[in-house]
Amino acid sequence: MASVTEIAPDVFRITTFNPTTRLSYSHFVIRDDEPVLYHAGLRSCFAELSEAAASVVDVQKIRHIGFSHFESDECGALNDWLEAAPDAVAFTGPLCAATSLNDFAIRSPAVLGKDATLETGTKRFRLIPTPHLPHGWDSAMLFEESDRTLFVSDLFTDSGDPAPVIDSGLADRAHQFLLRAEQSLFAHSTNFNPSSRGQLEALAELGPKTLAVMHGSSFSGEGSQELLQLASAMEDVFKKQAVIDG
Ligand SMILES: [Fe+2]
Ligand SMILES: [Fe+2]
């Protein structure tokens, strides 16, 4: 079964490992009056993920399902979850709704605009648009304000099946992964453009205490420092890739 770890108060990391991609895949269940699932995961993993989620929440009572950008590991199993949880509604930004989710989801999604908040009982969420960061023009990052948890999707990706939570070295690991990835199928996975550093600086200003990472360890500590360090790491990789691409 998938492993389950509480990484922040009532925030549970549910993780599988795929030996083909050599990546871990983490999904987050937030236990509250109205339970939230962030990352619906691959369709092929639904049975395993829902069994693990049931250890921390009544799956039928999940009310909100979100993700960063339209991609199979983010939302492939969305409709399975919507069938399992009859009162659940997907939430997304206006662009993802217009380009993908209004068509894909079996129930209409809730659209969370730039300054809108989602209150679930004791927790309050905002969806922060981050176009093309890490990739995809519909990308967004979810921020939980009461405990300052930032859900960063594919940022800080690392390979293998590392520890559920670390408190140092997150950006270093991501830097090494990005350098290795540029020689692999995952080259160009993380976009760096003139807006990227400013986007990461804006995320750092949120002062996150926990970074909830999809592929790799999550992080507990000074999240701002890791985000700023990641900006420099991405810039370095982008320059090296430009040389490789000629
Ligand atoms: Fe992605
Ligand atoms: Fe991903």
From TrEMBL:
- Using the record's annotation, list all stretches that form the ODP domain: 27-158
- SUPFAM superfamilies in UniProt: Metallo-hydrolase/oxidoreductase
Q: In the record, what lineage is assigned to the organism producing the protein? A: Bacteria, Pseudomonadati, Pseudomonadota, Alphaproteobacteria, Sphingomonadales
Organism, by scientific name, is Sphingobium chungbukense
Fetch the InterPro entries from UniProt. ODP_dom, RibonucZ/Hydroxyglut_hydro
Its signal peptide is none
What Gene3D superfamilies does its record include? Answer: Ribonuclease Z/Hydroxyacylglutathione hydrolase-like
Q: Specify the protein name.
A: ODP domain-containing protein
